[in-house]
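Anyone? Bumping this.
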Amino acid sequence: MSVHTDDTGSRIGMWIFLYTEIMLFGGLFILYAAYYHRYAQDFIAAGSETELVLGTLNTAILLTSSFAVAASVEAMRRKASSLAIILLCFAVMLGAVFLFNKYLEWSRDFAIGYYPGSDLMVDGPKGQSIFFALYFVLTGLHALHVIIGMGILCACLILTAKKRITSEKMILLDNAGLFWHLVDIIWIFLFPLFYLLH
Amino acid sequence: MSAEASFYQTPSSPRHRGIAAWLLTTDHKRIGIMYMAVIFTYFFVGVTLGLLMRTELMSVNTKIVSAQTYNALFTLHGVIMIFLFIIPGMPAIFGNFLVPIQIGAEDVIFPRINLLSWYLFVAGGILAIISLFLKGPPDTGWTFYVPFSTTTKTGVTLTVFSVFVLGLSSMLTGINFITTIHRFRNKNMGWMQIPLFTWSIYATAWVQVLATPIIGITMILIIVERLFGVGLLDPSKGGDPLMYQHLFWIYSHPAVYIMILPGMGIISEIFPVFSRKSIFGYRSIVVAGMAIAAIGSLVWAHHMFVSGMSDVAVLVFSFLTFIVAVPSAVKVFNWVSTMYKGSIYMAPPFLFALCFIFLFSIGGLTGLVQGAAGPNVHIHDTHWVVGHFHFVMFGGAGFAFLGGLHFWWPKFFGRMYDFKKAYAGCGMLAVGFMMHYFPMFILGLEGMPRRYYTYLPRYWALNFFGGIGAYIMVAGIALLFINLFMSFRRPDNAPPDPWGGTTLEWSVPSPPPLRNFIEEPVVGPHPYDFTEKEKK
């Protein structure tokens, strides 16, 4: 069987896949909207309890890593594959820092008792508990995507080093970049919903 | 190896032989046949479970199964028939085998992802089977409504995870078909020259891609709820179970169009071929198919009229439900009109298609009774709903599936089956079907609820009658499949075009060679042009 090389087709497939990812998160965004409608005051009160500094820092980190991936794709297009590798490494490292910050943030939340089922939540208003339930499910699912994305970027890194991804055959890197940008843009929506709600 | 050798003789990767040539293949035809093998197995299991339920209901005091076992039976019957038979059935078997050939391509665009979908499908099925034995079979019904599904002690966690995996498989198949139809069409084939079956798979694939992620996240929510108790769906922690029902039906109502749209595509192929006449209103069928996919995504809440939504929501969703019936009716008119002044050639696939029209129309019209906000309250969760659902899903999608199976069987395997047994099987199935499911409408109107293992004595007569119908149906199904399998003892000499079809799959040998086409396919200006075909 001949190997099909249809970059446009691969890109279309990737965009449709990204669309399914948006729908996956969309289900949770619907829940957020419905519960925000019901518990607006509780949500606003709970929104000021999240760690704004770490959230902002993480937003900056993800945006920078997205830039690094975009730059890496452009570097590959200009046949500078070692620069592309360095930029990919940088992006993966930023992803790891993002996850580390997430870890700090979550351990703080658990220490205070900002998680569903804690004594604090059981005694507090219901909207607060729902807010933190959504917070953990959504940022948790997002963190899972960051991990998967880092895996994909690492795979691209190795394939680039092995010359399996070149400037002529770079659709895999292109699509990996698209996935990373998706992870980034979902965070851009999560950030105001959970950190800027005062 | 000659170019004419069928794909059975030519492994898609020459390195592999025997069973590996199947399990590691990227050939869309082999993958289609592998789906067929798995899906048939599930179908037979599903039929057996259904028959057990009907036997239990044949008299008031039968104690073949306990109440708990009965709950497990209808859950498994639903999960198997829906997630493992009808949803994957037509797109994965017929879609895989036929779509690339119908558009003049060698394969789908992502052959390896296609194989991955098959493995995910098998893995999902295995997970579902394991879930039966770990903590006892799930007893929630195929809808997994909270709060029961998040509190029951049975192994629901693994079952819903298997649904998630099956959804992933279905979604990847959808992405594959959409991209294939966009990119791999023969360069001479415009959008209005695509055969209608491929169009229906295209519409189906969009629904698969649009809606499946929602069931994915809904199933994840059940798992998260069961493992961590976050309370998003738990009223005691501020959650709202109604939100679960919304999320579930946002997928699961469009999913019924995943089940029926490919069936409509198959019927649209069968009618012109056996009427020897171009399909009536090609464009309107295409538009109706896409309209069903679009509007069908907006009617989900008609499953929830008695769940406590606002009256405004009930009226809006009731209105949309009536709207979605219109394109389906357009298609029925088109199929019937295709026969007008045609030259009818009777064969088993056509008999299935005729039965489809009759049964699907009953199913569609009874659906409107449910879609209306008033009567819905009366018949909600009664046997009426079970009757309607089976008329559409079995009388509709199931008969279309069997029709397609008899239509393309010679193309798949190069062997023709016995017509008399096929007619007899189809007749038994249709008669048993009416006896079995029609009484459910009456029972439902009289108030017999669904999902109970026993009932009041006054419902006995119709339940007993329906039970007899069920046995006739199963005998019909057995005869049909035995007849199909018996064809393997016949010589493999089916002609490339046994029915006189016009779409591209009939221009290649039966079974097709590895690369589908021996010479460059010729695409005519219209997919259903019978002027060149002799009248049989």
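Late reply, but here is one note on the structure posted above: DSSP finds seven helices and no strands in chain A.
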